[in-house]
Every structure is written in structure tokens, then in C-alpha cells.
Amino acid sequence: MKKVSIVLSFAALFIAACSGGNTNTTSTETQTTIDATTPEATAEVEVPADINALLEKNTCLTCHNANEKVVGPAYVEVAKRNYTPEQIVELIYKPKPSNWPDYQTPMVGLPNVPKEEALKIANWIVSLK
Ligand code: HEC
């Protein structure tokens, strides 16, 4: 199910990108202009099984998807903020909703996520750039 929708949304993006010529007509989420990003920057990422297990166990998947905005931002979007893994761990424990003014429901801090697991997730998010 999930896979299918990921594939479908990728196909939609791809078609939109092609029919839109060289202007970026697919970006509805951010108004910030990011130069030097190629269309490949929006390619879908696969979540490794061990990371997916951690995301699931720690309830992250309730609100986050690697590629798509859900309740919270897509992890590929978080990756673009160029945080260090340590900063991401901090943000898991103490989110700063002011970093994401477009999101109505703020993330609640998750102090019960073991540090080691938070760091693994954080390292993975950083690797999505
Ligand atoms: C209840 C829904 C919810 C859950 C559960 C949740 N998040 Fe979030 N997350 C959000 C929202 C909404 C935002 C953006 C607004 C904010 O930061 O409050 C966000 C933002 C983030 C950010 C960006 C922080 C920043 O300031 O740039 C990271 C990283 C993140 N979440 C990681 C995680 C991880 C890892 C987990 C699981 C351990 C998790 N989230 C669980 C909703 C959630």
C-alpha cells in the first residue's frame, strides 16, 4: 500500500516536472527559493528496514514520512536544513515549532526515545541530503 502510493506520487511528480518545462511548478510546500537544486533532489528515498523499525517503535511514523509532508515535515525536507545529528537529537527531545511555521500541529517532545536510537535516526536524516 505505502509503496504503491510512494511510487504513484513519484510518477506524478515526474510527469509534472516534465510537462512544466524548466520552471519549477511542483513546489507547493516551500516559498523559499533554493538555488542549485536539481530535480533529482526530490527523488524518493527508501527507508532502510532498521531505521524504519526505529521510526515505527518511537511513533515517528504517525506524523512523518520520509518523502511526503504528513502531520510533520518529510524527512527529506528536514535534511535540507543542514542540521548536525546532535541538533536533530535535541529537536526530537525538544522540538522548536517556530522552525516550521507552516505546520499547525506542533511536534511534542519525545524524551523517551533512547539517545542511541535518536542518534541513529538523526544520522539517517542527515544522510538524505
Ligand atoms: C505528533 C506528531 C509527531 C510525532 C509523533 C513526531 N513528530 Fe517530528 N515533527 C512533527 C511536526 C508537526 C513537526 C514540525 C513542527 C514542529 O517542529 O513542531 C516535526 C518536526 C520534526 C523535525 C524537525 C525539527 C526542526 O525544528 O527542524 C524532526 C527532526 C522530527 N520532527 C523528527 C521526529 C522523530 C525522529 C520522531 C520520532 C522519534 C518524530 N519526529 C515524531 C510531528 C511529529
What do you see in this structure?
By secondary structure, this protein is mainly alpha-helical. It folds into 2 domains: 1-44, no CATH class; 45-129, Cytochrome c-like domain (Cytochrome Bc1 Complex, Chain D, domain 2). 44% of the residues lie in helices and 0% in strands. The protein has 6 helices and no strands. The radius of gyration is 15 Å and the shape is globular. The two termini are 26 Å apart. Residues 8-22 have low confidence and may be disordered. Heme C binds at residues 58-60, 62-64, 71-73, 78, 81, 88, 91-92, 95-97, 99-100, 103, 105-108, 110, 113, 121, 125.
Keyword list:
single chain, 129 residues, mainly alpha, globular, binds heme C
According to CATH, the fold-level topology of the largest domain is: Cytochrome Bc1 Complex, Chain D, domain 2
In CATH, the homologous superfamily of the largest domain goes by the name: Cytochrome c-like domain
- Per CATH, the class of the largest domain reads Mainly Alpha
Structural class: mainly alpha
Whole-number tally of structural domains: 2
The molecules bound to the chains, other than polymers, are: heme C
Helix percent reads: 40-55%
The main sheet comes to:
none
Taking Cα atoms only, what radius of gyration do you get, to the nearest Å? 15 Å
Apparent shape = globular
Intertermini distance:
26 Å
The total count of helices amounts to 6
What average pLDDT do the residues reach?
A: 82
Name the poorly predicted regions. Answer: 8-22
Could you give a quick summary of the protein structure above?
By secondary structure, this protein is mostly helical.
